[in-house]
Amino acid sequence: MATTDPAAQASPISTSRTANEFSIQVATVNGSGSQTANLILIRSLFQMGIPVSGKNLFPSNIAGLPTWYTIRANRHGYIARKKEIDFLVALNPETAREDVLSLEPGTSVVYDAPLNLESLRQDVTFYPVPFDKLVAPVCPDAKLRRLVRNMIYDGVLSFLLDIELAEMEQALTRQLARKQKALSLNMAALRAGYEYAAANFPVKPPIRAERMNATAGKILIEGNAAAAIGCLMAGVTVVAWYPITPSSSLCETLIDLLRKYRTDKETGKASFAVVQAEDEIAALGMVIGASWAGARAMTSTSGPGISLMAEFTGLGYYAEVPAVIFDIQRVGPSTGLPTRTAQGDILATAVLSHGDTRHPLLLPASVGECYEMAMQAFDLAERLQTPVFVMSDLDLGMNMWMSEPFAYPDGPVDRGKVLDQAALARMGQWGRYQDVDGDGIPWRTLPGTGMPAYFTRGSGHNAQGQYSERGDDYRANMDRLARKFRTAATLVPAPEIAWEPGARIGLIGYGTTHWALVESRDQLRDEAGLATSYLRLRAYPFTPELEAFIDRHDRVYVVEQNRDAQMAALMRMDLDPQRMAKVRSVLHYDGLPIDARSVTDAILAQEDLPVGAEVPRGSVKTV
Amino acid sequence: MTTTTGAAPGRRLNRIGLELTQYRGSKTTLCAGCGHNAISERIIEACFELGIKPDQVLKLSGIGCSSKSPAYFLSQAHGFNSVHGRMPSVATGALLANKNMLAIGVSGDGDTGAIGIGQFVHLMRRNLPMVYIIEDNGCYGLTKGQFSPTADVGSTLKNGVVNDLPPIDTCVLAIELGATFVARSFSGDKKQLLALLKGALAHRGTAMLDVLSPCVTFNDHEGSTKSYAYVKEHDEPVSDVSFVPFFEDISIDHAEGTAREVTLHDGSRIVLRKLDGDYDPTDKAAALRVLRETASRGEYATGLLYVDTGARDFCSLLNLVDEPLATLPLERTRPGRHVLEELMEKQR
Q1: ipTM
Q2: B86, A297: Cβ pair inside 8 Å?
């Protein structure tokens, strides 16, 4: 297929085109309206029953900077990012040259004809499309052309990749159902693209879409929206937040849901309060105040907000006040890469604050877990009377992921140890920080409920909640807090383990790293005959399964998306050093979601096995 | 004002049958003679005389000498001594969780004017229904006497260091930003402070009281503009304040045109008797002008400086349900199965 002009090539359409195993990258300019076109593309593949994933690689900018959207379709169900691009849509004049030069030989490229990219390479297939010429007749209003122009590449791809046009039309209709004019313009552009491709490109690329049945009944949703639904179903009553990428859409979605479903239809009154705070410090302060007074309260933020929340997190830990905090992680330190993904806040968050503190972390890997763990976080925070963090990331929070529909929570919520008359009668006497039950968790009272008052303070206190600077009071309190954290280990979700009989190698991952590991395990098995077991952490504190898993393997690789092996460091703090001698790390930290090939190659290299594919350039480090 | 029916001889009971001692807190650990203790006493008296249920009060503070004082009043109220400069956010969350509580926040001039200025500004903007008291002594006591941002130009430390930066006037700020009850008083003026506190407690909205409260240990010397003697000498009341609670049918006699009355949310009234001039506390521009003029003379304008009884407080603005959000049952906070199904259908 190494030709610069497919129209001139006389050979018939290839019959050996690979079905449902490709990735498409669309390179556009931020703010050019490509979002709808990309959404239609991913949705139409999803509607054809093909497993898909979409990754939006966008700049920290309103409009004008380059943005890339990658869609992967995979019949095996692999939905991690795939590094290699099979099909490029090059529409950004600024990046087109570099985009094309970095392609593997054999890739196909649709590009805006005036960019004249053919001369760049002989070993890729070019499909020049005159976007402006095509858009003019279908959209007479010149001002609107920019907005519908992108739909042309959907039409072209529909023809070239056999993505059924009817599915694209259905996806488009659904997307723009309420905007009739936009719908008809976009529909015309879609068809114009399809017709142009059909008339001009007799040779299709070696990849194609083919209807299958792997997505029936499934949903396609972003992690932040899933978490918002989880908060709604958890019965959240107070939301305090400060806008920050990539977290904002969580609270914004939640606000929409609360307005719609939690406003009394007759009185118009709200069973919730939302405050856009002056900063993340105030946001968590409001959550702490609300939770102290008995509300289910949450906030959502990202790394810079986590840094600001250190002080209040320490207060929440020491004064024992519940709080639910979502951290949609992005690349740090400092402002870092605000629109790129990482698992870089693990270590800082686990011990956030000065002094000795430990905080439970929940580690969602899927949109389904964003939903479930949102609910678990409220239960844990109230049960443990402490701040609980849900450690999502940009990749999970802002990208579309397939999932089974979420299950309705049938059980009650856990409001924790809140003292009432019956409990007080049973106890006889009550002290705010007394460990009555031996689990380190004291009983609390809520203001306004008629139960005994106490004075909450971040300064030293004894079991009665009185001010104390006595060393023995301090130690007793800190030891009880440590005991409470051990109780937390019995309450947090256990890891998910895939045992491989006879495997000497164990892999450990968490969060979005999971999807690369699923695929990498298959690559290790198929390419190098290396069998691996796999443990996916779902929470901190660690549970006994982790030690048992390490014990059953000769070598254990902890794979994570940060430079300093943060989860492994946390393990080093908590586990026996001899056990840790078996632990190695595979680290990915270039801001892009981790991919299977990088993991596979890094592990093969550490195992002294031949590396099948080219070693990635600097994106993965092994320790 | 208070009844004695059913009381043991010599014991005063208030309208809800409680004694004054039931409004007290732990023994103070502040310095003997500290203005803050006098303020705590007035809070105790005000709550007692108004017949406020102590267990329906939230008392909140930041960090500093002032912020210790909630421990020294209303021991039956839930208290929260939070972190430095961040009490406004904690109070906001607590009141959203339970809007039926009466919140009294105590801060200091450092806690508010320096580290907490950001949260203070936004609290005033939101008109959160609470009483916010600044115990203002112009210095940091717990860290041994450094200047705070309310120290006046030319005021000196004990060691002779002179402050050369202009002060932040928290009353000016509060009025500008949207607080709806703004007053300044002096810990040494029992009558005025008590009347203003009662007015603040009856007001629905943010009631901001800056109470000059001399630090007897670090800022009570010659050369300080926050010393007891200086404040007493330069206290310029804008009017004479008295308070008539809603449950008392008292008409205060005053000659035509010699007083103004402000009727508060619960029907209580503040009566402002004219002094030198006719001060109108509903005139924002006039209030700011008087504050600037008195400050330029090195004086403190005290009394009820500004009041707006018509503005909506933050909880009303959010249109919250009548019951506290904190204790709403799950059936009112978790939507039904059909809602989740509807949401899932949208994502298919």
Answers
A1: 0.97
A2: no
